[in-house]
Amino acid sequence: MNATASRQALRFTALLLLALLLAACGSRTPVRPSALAAPRIAADPNDILFRAISLVGTPYRYGGNTPESGFDCSGLIGYVFYDVAGARLPRSAAEIDRLDAPPVSRQKLVAGDLVFFRDGSSISHIGIYVGEGRFVHAPSRGGTVRLDALDGDYWRQHYVGAKRLIR
Fold first, then answer.
1. What is the 3-state secondary structure of the chain?
2. Angle 67-158-83 from CA coordinates, rounded to 5°
3. In this model, does residue 142 exceed pLDDT 50?
4. Number of folded domains in the chain?
5. What residues are labeled active site?
6. In the chain, count of helices (H) and strands (E)?
7. Is the pLDDT of residue 53 over 70?
8. CA-CA distance, 81 to 79, in Å (whole number)?
9. Is the pLDDT of residue 18 over 50?
10. Which residue from 6, 70, 73, 119 lies 20 to 30 Å from 79 (Cα-Cα)?
11. Per-residue confidence at 131, pLDDT binned at 50, 70, 90?
């Protein structure tokens, strides 16, 4: 094999390897994350309701998950379910929404159900339904844990659905 043919073979091999490398790094359609296994929670829904209501007035704090430090929305949910039932939940509203738990229609909500809200294309907020069209949640910076109506203008427009973790 002469020098020219050898260089062409080397160049062809290098281009082939480069093409394979680029193909391996190519993008693909993102896969929707699969559902997470929901914990089996055996608790009295009234215990969830009373614990959630007892925290009304606790300061909001981003990343907070105790009455002493304050709560953000998912921190409040995690604290109540752990305190009442020993159940550990994921740390964000979107991850809690991914739990493989039965969805509940708005007409069939009961105390202790989780209600989810969206701002844009993703789940951004969560609360605990306490009955009579109301829910407890930690809404925003500078605020406190509070009780609000699902039919309030903002909440009605951003409501996505609900799930039941209590079996």
1. CCHHHHHHHHHHHHHHHHHHHHHHCCCCCCCCCCCECCCCECCCHHHHHHHHHHCCCCEECCCCEECCCEECHHHHHHHHHHHHHCCCCCCCHHHHHCECCCEECHHHCCCCCEEEEECCCCEEEEEEEEECCEEEECCCCCCECEEEECCCHHHHHHEEEEECCEC
2. 25
3. yes
4. 1
5. 73, 125, 137
6. 5, 8
7. yes
8. 6
9. no
10. 119
11. very high
Distant-in-sequence, close-in-space partners of 73: CB < 8 Å, separation ≥ 6: 93, 125, 126, 127, 137, 138, 139
- Domain of residue 84, residue span: 41-163
- For the segment 143-153, what is each residue's pLDDT rounded down to a tens digit? 999 999 999 99
Q: Is residue 147 part of a domain?
A: yes
41-63 average pLDDT score: 96
- The domain that holds 126 is classified in CATH as 3.90.1720.10
The DSSP bridge partners found for residue 71 are 60, 65
Domain assignment present for 26: no
In a domain, 7, yes or no: no
Pair of tokens at residue 54: 């007892």
Residue 2 placed within a domain? no
Under 8 Å CB-to-CB from 30, ≥6 apart: which residues?
none
Q: Are 63 and 149 in contact (CB under 8 A)?
A: no
